[in-house]
Design a protein that fits this description.
Blueprint (H helix, E strand, L loop, with lengths): L2 E5 L2 E4 L4 E8 L8 E6 L6 E6 L5 E3 L7 E6 L4 E6 L8 E7 L12 E6 L1
Parallel strand pairs: 2-10
Antiparallel strand pairs: 1-3, 3-8, 4-5, 4-9, 5-6, 7-8, 9-10
Amino acid sequence: QVQLVESGGGLVQAGGSLRLSCAFSGRGFSIYDMGWYRQAPGKQRELVARIFSGGDTSYVDSVKGRFTISRDNAKNTVYLQMNSLKPEDTAVYYCNSAYAEPGAYWGQGTQVTVSS
């Protein structure tokens, strides 16, 4: 059974950087297309970055040029490097399959708070 553990969040000033990590336990990590999602207070969870099994990536427009998703298949880990952070990036960040449904299993997430 897959388990996901996110880490690396925190409080940062606008313009700062954070690097999130997601440890995937279970089989077959390297064949999964993975995604980073975020959920701000009062808003729906949104997919902000995806990395496909072959290494291609895609981003939502609001984070393009600032966030970079990567993966290390040897460590069963997916990362999200976040630069030039803005207050509107404040949210709980989750990783999961790039096609995860709201009712799927989700990890505990990691809180990112960006102060102005």
